[in-house]
Amino acid sequence: MAQFTRLEVAAAMKETGMIPLFFNQDIELSKKVLKACYDGGARLMEFTARGDFAHEVFGELTKYAIAELPGMIMGVGSVTDAGQASLYMALGANFIVTPVLREDIAIVCNRRKVLWSPGCGTLTEITRAEELGCEIVKLFPGDIYGPQFVKGIKGPQQWTSIMPTGGVAPTEENLKAWFDAGVTCVGMGSKLISKDIIANKDYAKLEQDVRNALAIVKAVRK
Predict the structure, then answer these.
(1) CA neighbor of 23 nearest in space, from 65, 88, 78, 96
(2) C-beta separation of 163 from 141 below 8 A
(3) Which residues of 77-109 are buried (b: 16+ CB within 10 A; e: fewer)?
(4) Residues 151, 181: contact at Cβ < 8 Å?
(5) How far is the C-alpha of 182 from the C-alpha of 188, rounded, in Å?
(6) How far apart are CA 203 and CA 98, in angstroms?
(7) Span 71-115, pLDDT tens digits
(8) What is the distance between the terminal CA atoms of the chain, rounded to a whole angstrom?
(9) 4/13 Cα distance (integer angstroms)
């Protein structure tokens, strides 16, 4: 059962402006990554469910967040169908992110009033997602479309909220381009939670990197 309503999740996405993306099969390592992101100021985590038994890791991470990290909003990405979405919602997912637009996922998420964010790449897909009740559309892969695409969408549809994922980097130049174009928030995976950080278990660096990225987001939004 979700701990946060979809409106609360949407508000947190807009307020913080950034969602770290992460997956690892090691539960204890994943807890340390989650805590470093939390201590750095992140209040959402998209667990990219791409590995075998990923749901078991997510279940443990969600329990950990509820017990130790008050206010941390756990969600799941790379969800491909309604059955998978339902499984993760039963494990406490507060939002569901998908690589494509699927109406079956929209139905099961809306029925539970859980925020869902589908990957869209055309204005038609974005419009359909909003007709199905989507609050924040995922632009994926972000580096293929770029900030100019966001500007194009926001012209005729100023009400559309967009979250690019893929090709987003924790630099002032990159983040300023996205937020100047009108995005609501961004998703960041390996460019934030790098392979080196994981290999070296440098959680202090990750905490600082998250803090720095959030500070840049805050600054470029003004």
Answers:
(1) 78
(2) no
(3) bbbeebebbbbbbebbbbbbbbbebbeebbebb
(4) yes
(5) 17
(6) 28
(7) 999 999 999 999 999 999 999 999 999 999 999 999 999 999 999
(8) 36
(9) 12
